[in-house]
Design goal:
This protein has helices at residues 75-82, 125-128, 159-168, 170-188, 227-234, 294-297, 327-336, 356-364; strands at residues 17-21, 24-30, 35-37, 49-51, 56-64, 100-101, 105-109, 115-116, 130-136, 139-144, 148-158, 209-213, 273-277, 283-288, 301-305, 308-312, 319-322, 375-379, 384-388. It is an alpha+beta fold. It has 2 domains: 17-110 and 147-213, no CATH class; 267-388, Sandwich (Immunoglobulin-like). The strands form 6 sheets. Strands 2, 5, 6, 7 and 11 form a 5-stranded mixed beta sheet that branches. The chain has a 4-stranded antiparallel beta sheet with strand order 13-14-19-18, with no helix packed on it. Strands 8-10-9 form a 3-stranded antiparallel beta sheet. A hairpin with a 2-residue loop joins strand 9 and strand 10 (139-144). The radius of gyration is 27 Å and the shape is globular. Mean pLDDT is 68; it is low at 1-24, 39-45, 111-145, 258-266 and 336-354. This is PIH1 N-terminal domain-containing protein. One of its GO terms (cellular component) is R2TP complex.
Length: 389
């Protein structure tokens, strides 16, 4: 069961403890066993959660840059891990995916409906609510429906290494889902079915910051500067020196200090873009990109989600087209000139440059982007990027 909510990074960059905001796609499954689930957090609680057989499980498969990434490995090593051909974690050449699994928390699978008399044998009165004793038109009316109990887990993976491949590799996506379910089973001793679904919700439950303990061996290493080299370098003259010249007192122009020019105006503006519907039914987004060399283009990244497009160009503002925001928030951010939401939207076909917010809202009314079938073309001669979704 898959969905793609907005991403959010943690502000806590410590080595051993991480503050993580849960985001990502969702998976649901059912329990095939019944037991009591005991908490395993750093702050122990005496409460245990009764888990009846057949209840629904929601898994928020999530991403955060502070989660340790998988080790570097060849494509063969990755494929062996995906196919479960290599299970020896003590092998230094083994490839694995670090994941943080939260405690299970209770929630409700909400919904209201009325049922026919023939369905009564399928309803658990203690869980689903109270039915009236009156029959109207051979149908029973549901008087109270608080929601069926369910259990929610969060599985958090690294943003850069894992999320990027999940978006482009369906087999790897299934591998991450199966890995999440296996880690939950290992942590809770539950036995989960592999019948999954896709509810139309952004995430299950309120997304909460979380503090976890990371093994030092998996924590990113921070290199320290060489003090001896630093001392030697401090005795040398700087490579670039400022030359101060005396201007005439009556001179009306001022000579800028230094030999380096300030960055051009183009490097401070969000790339302009426009969109249109092409013949095959796809949505085509045309982005005006700066003139770049091939070596710089290879460092750019394009992230496409069903309701979001993010273009990252080194030393240029981020282009973040987030259609999952509400209309009011889109208008408010555009009015403030935020660089995280598009402010310079360019001109779409048949629209003026003054209708930037209208263009963004019009694109939001279209269908979600086709992530699996997306095609991107960088045309260097015309300084534009065509993205067909």
């Amino acid at each position: 069961m898959l969905a793609w909510p907005n991403s959010a990074d943690s502000a806590n960059k410590t080595v051993d403890l991480l503050e993580i905001v849960i985001v990502g796609f969702r998976v649901t499954a059912n329990y095939t066993t019944a037991l009591n689930l005991h908490p395993i957090s750093l702050k122990q609680s005496n409460k245990s959660i009764p888990v009846p057989q057949g209840c629904k499980l929601f898994v928020n498969v999530s991403y955060d840059p502070n989660v340790p990434p998988p080790p570097e490995g060849s494509e063969d090593a990755i494929q062996r891990a995906m196919n479960a051909d290599e299970m020896d974690e003590s092998n230094p050449d083994a490839w694995f995916v670090p994941v943080i699994v939260s405690e299970g928390r209770l929630d409700t699978d909400k919904g209201k409906f009325s049922v026919t008399e023939s369905w009564l044998s399928l309803i658990d009165f203690g869980i689903w609510g109270l039915l009236s004793s009156a029959v109207v038109a051979n149908r029973w009316s549901l008087l109270s429906f608080p929601g069926k109990p369910c259990l929610v887990f969060d599985c958090i993976f690294n943003t850069t290494s894992v999320k990027s491949r999940v978006l482009r590799d369906p087999e790897f996506k299934l591998f991450i889902i199966e890995l999440s379910l296996q880690r939950i089973e290992e942590q809770t001793q539950l036995v989960l079915s592999r019948q999954i679904g896709t509810p139309n919700i952004a995430a299950k439950g309120k997304l909460q910051p979380r503090t976890v303990s990371i093994p030092p061996i998996l924590a990113p290493k921070i290199s320290k500067p060489d003090e001896s080299k630093k001392h030697i370098g401090s005795t040398k003259k700087p490579l670039i020196q400022e030359i101060v010249t005396q201007d005439h007192p009556n001179s009306s122009t001022k000579t800028p200090k230094g030999i380096l020019k300030s960055s051009s105006k183009e490097a401070t503006q969000v790339p302009a873009w426009s969109w249109s519907r092409i013949e095959n039914g796809l949505l085509q987004i045309e982005i005006r990109v700066p003139a770049l060399e091939k070596s710089v283009i290879s460092l750019c990244s394009l992230d496409i989600e069903p309701r979001r497009l993010i273009l990252t160009i080194p030393n240029h503002p981020l282009l973040d087209l987030n259609l999952s925001l509400s209309d009011a928030e889109l208008v408010a951010r555009s009015g403030k000139g935020s660089t995280t939401t598009i402010t310079d939207l360019g001109s779409s076909e048949g629209k003026s440059d003054n209708s930037t917010v209208d263009k963004l809202l019009a694109l939001k009314r279209q269908r979600p982007f086709d992530v699996e079938g997306a095609i991107a073309q960088w045309i260097m001669a015309d300084n534009k990027l065509l993205v067909s979704v």
